[in-house]
Amino acid sequence: LVCRHDRVLWLANMTSAGERQHYAIALLDKFFRHVPATFRAGVLYDIGCQLHRSCYKWDLLPDYCDRIVFAISVFHAFGHQWPCQIIYHPRKCACFGLSDGEGCERLWSALDHLVAGLRVSGVSDYPPEQRRDH
Questions:
Q1: Which end of the chain has the lower number of beta carbons within 10 A, N or C?
Q2: What InterPro entries has UniProt attached to this entry (predicted)?
C-alpha cells in the first residue's frame, strides 16, 4: 500500500500469485485503523471496480466503505470495458488529481531484483505428501 507520493505505508507478505482481493482488503483495513474516523481515501487499484463491487456485495470493510472512492489505476483502466472506464477512471473521479495509481508497479519494479534472493526455498515449500521428511 503506497500513498499518492509512492511512499510505502504497509506491505503484505503475498503467499499466492495473482490479483487476490484479500491482500487489498487487509491493507485497507490496516490503513483505516490508523487514520481519523472522518478521513476519506481514494483507492487506485488495478481491479478497483471488482474490489468496489466485492465490498458492497459481501459487506467487506463495512466501517470504511462509505469513506472510500474506488478507481482504477490509469494504465490498467484502458484494459477495462468502456462503462467501467467511465465510472472508475481517476481523471473522471473527484479527489485523484493527476495521480496515476501506478506507485505499486513502480515499487515492484524497483524491488524485483530482491525477489529471487528473498524467496524461501526449502522443505516447507512442498505439500506434506511430497516431503521426504514426512
A1: C
A2: KDZ
